[in-house]
Design a protein that fits this description.
Elements: H1 12-27, E1 33-40, E2 43-54, E3 59-60, E4 67-68, H2 73-86, H3 117-122, H4 150-163, H5 180-192, H6 196-205, E5 227-228, E6 235-236, E7 240-245, E8 248-253, E9 271-272, H7 274-285, H8 294-300, E10 316-318, E11 323-325, H9 328-331, E12 340-344, E13 348-353, E14 358-364, E15 366-367, H10 369-372, H11 374-386
Parallel strand pairs: 5-15
Antiparallel strand pairs: 1-2, 1-14, 2-3, 4-9, 5-6, 7-8, 10-11, 11-12, 12-13, 13-14
């Protein structure tokens, strides 16, 4: 989807509540710009681009604005992986070493437990969230070693480093949000014989007719400027920037998406539009067709961690690619039980409620208000009130 005009079947009550939530965030200078889309029973009932994509140059937000997706990448790669599972090319119980023989991180006692595809998808592999010196790594200039794509070489370099870092716990015995999806990206590359971006295009975006969501930017003029919250208003991010949170420091490399030689990070390396993300999530909401069968989707939308994910946030489990709301009250989220939910550190959130046939995408260019602030909560509250 690339048109600035979206066919909408309006819901006046929802429009009033969502407009109020968006207007408040912009007026209070918590956000610079956003695109919010809501689909009900397969029809878009609300769509709005508001604020600025590039405040300093006076460029307004459009519905076809391209955003750095950060962790909104994860569900897209998870769908690609599950297509390979459905085709019998990957098994969830397979050890990662089937594709990456060198990937044998050790526990503190020196043992090397098996890490499976299931562990990678559910963040139960025992891997940490990052590596020292991650910011800006993975660039190899114009070198193309042994005929391989530079991005593939860069990803293998990263995974070899990760394999030398100790595991935090035995796979399957704990939960920690990590860069395990990057390891899954390496598996997909080995299985398909090419860069992750080519596999994702073949397995997900191309069959859906989507051209704006990829590990590269097709139209730089539509790429939103990233901002970070500051007083009195959000400030543009530097090429290498960071945001301090209560749980640590989040580091950004804003030019990474423009470098064709950077490895394709399944954890957060894609850029894309709200329209494309809605189309991809609607596939899951509808039960998988035409990409996945219903049994595969059924497994993806269940908590696959046996309650382990709730150790970090009560009321949430984790399926294959996203969080699953197991107890809305304990999670303190304005979402229904069974809803799927996740976001991205550039300022994004989304959720899918299969029971109510509802898909909501809210992409912003403002970290971290668009992810951890009141904005995504206000969006969820407005949607459910309107229902």
């Amino acid at each position: 989807m690339s048109s600035d005009a979206i066919a909408i079947r309006p819901n006046p009550q929802m429009a009033r509540l969502l407009d109020s939530a968006i207007d408040s965030a912009l007026e209070e200078k918590r956000l610079v710009g956003t695109v919010v889309l809501v689909a009900r029973e397969g029809s878009i009932v609300y769509g709005r681009a508001a604020g600025m994509a590039d405040r300093e140059n006076g460029l307004p937000m459009r519905t076809d604005t391209i955003f750095r997706l950060s962790s909104v990448t994860k569900p897209i790669v998870a769908i690609a992986a599950m297509r390979l599972v459905g085709a019998g090319r990957i098994c969830l119980a397979d050890p990662v070493t089937r594709w990456l023989p060198y990937f044998r991180p050790r526990l503190p006692d020196g043992s090397t437990p098996a890490i499976t595809i299931h562990h990678l998808l559910t963040h139960t592999a025992g891997l940490d969230g990052s590596l020292p010196g991650d910011a800006g790594e993975g660039r190899l200039g114009g070198t193309n070693l042994a005929g391989e794509h530079p991005a593939c070489i860069a990803l293998e370099e990263k995974l070899r480093r990760l394999a030398n870092a100790p595991l935090l716990y035995a796979p399957g015995t704990g939960w920690r949000y990590s860069i395990s999806m990057d390891v899954l990206g390496g598996v997909i590359e080995k299985e398909t014989g090419g860069p992750l971006g080519e596999a994702v295009a073949a397995l997900v975006t191309r069959p859906l007719g989507l051209s704006d969501t990829a590990f590269h930017v097709t139209d730089r003029a539509r790429l939103a400027v990233p901002y970070k919250n500051a007083t009195p208003e959000p400030q543009p991010m530097e090429c290498e920037d960071s945001v301090v949170t209560s749980s640590g420091v989040i580091r950004y490399s804003t030019e990474r998406i423009l470098d064709p030689h950077t490895y394709h990070s399944a954890s957060g390396g894609m850029a894309g539009t709200a329209e494309d993300i809605l189309a991809i999530l609607e596939i899951v909401r509808r039960g998988g067709a035409p990409l996945l069968d219903t049994s595969t989707v059924s497994a993806m939308v269940r908590d696959q961690t046996n309650g382990l994910a709730g150790l970090e946030r009560p009321g949430l489990g984790f399926g294959y690619g996203w969080a699953v709301v197991t107890d809305p009250d304990r999670a303190d989220l304005p979402l229904a039980r069974g809803a799927l939910q996740w976001g991205g550190v550039y300022g994004h959130s989304w959720f899918v409620d299969q029971e109510r046939k509802l898909t909501v995408v809210a992409l912003t260019n403002t970290a971290l208000e668009g992810l951890f602030g009141t904005f995504p909560l206000d969006i969820g509250k407005a949607v459910y009130r309107a229902l």
